[in-house]
Amino acid sequence: FFSKEYQEGFGVSFTDTFFVPLDGLDDDKPTALGSAGGTIYLFRENSIWALSGDGPDKTGAGQYYTPQLVSNSIGALKGSPTIFTDEGLFFQSTKGIFIINANGITYIGSPVEDILGTSRIIDMIQDQKTSTIRFITDSSVIAYDYGAKQWSNYTFSTLSSNKIVGAGNADGDIYLANNDNKLWKESGYKLGTTYL
Predict the structure, then answer these.
(1) Under a CB-based contact definition with an 8 Å cutoff, are residues 105 and 70 in contact?
(2) Residue 88 DSSP class
(3) I need a labelling partner for 105 at 20 to 30 A (CA). Which of 45, 46, 127, 191 fits?
(4) Sign of torsion over alpha carbons 21, 27, 32, 37
């Protein structure tokens, strides 16, 4: 289901007639969404579908185009975050970290398979100052330098046994939140020694 067209001053509203039909939902459940330019990607457990068009207006006139199959062998993990950059749309599948762009679907996570292991990515953020995408797990930050096509693994001893629960980029500064209700600010390539 998708919402009606947003109108300033009103809450988001829905109608039963605004939905995208997809066959096989019992065998291949929806897991994530990602937006890339004018295309919405519907990720399922074992497939990816692309949806384009403007969709219906507030009166119900118009529609999305029929979803197009992008892959019938790669999907996204349930609740996988996605991030769209000039490089493409990044996501995590059961097979690792992928990117969708004009070149198709590309597996880019091979160099960090051992580091990522079975960890789930809980957040993805872009740091334009360092040309990196940060893939945050509950215990580390894996950074992909999209200019150099290189990976880095950040570990933070100051977090000790606490788990990372989220991350953000505010005014070019990277922040990590942990399960001890502390917010840490990254300083250069290390986590600051004091929390905020």
Answers:
(1) yes
(2) E
(3) 127
(4) negative
How far apart are alpha carbons 76 and 32 in whole angstroms?
7
Mention every residue, 6+ apart, whose C-beta is less than 8 A from residue 119. 137, 138, 139, 140
Q: Which residue, 84, 145, 85, 78, is CA-closest to 111? A: 145
Cα gap 97→131, rounded to integer Å: 17
DSSP state of 73: S
Distances (CA, A) of 105 to 13, 16, 46, 53, 124: 34, 33, 14, 21, 18
Tell me the residue type at 32: A
Alpha helices by DSSP H, 58-179:
113-116
Residue 25 identity (one-letter amino acid): L
**Can you say whether the dihedral through the CA atoms of 63, 64, 68, 72 is positive or negative?**
negative
DSSP per residue, 30-57:
EEEEEEETTEEEEEESS-EEEEES----
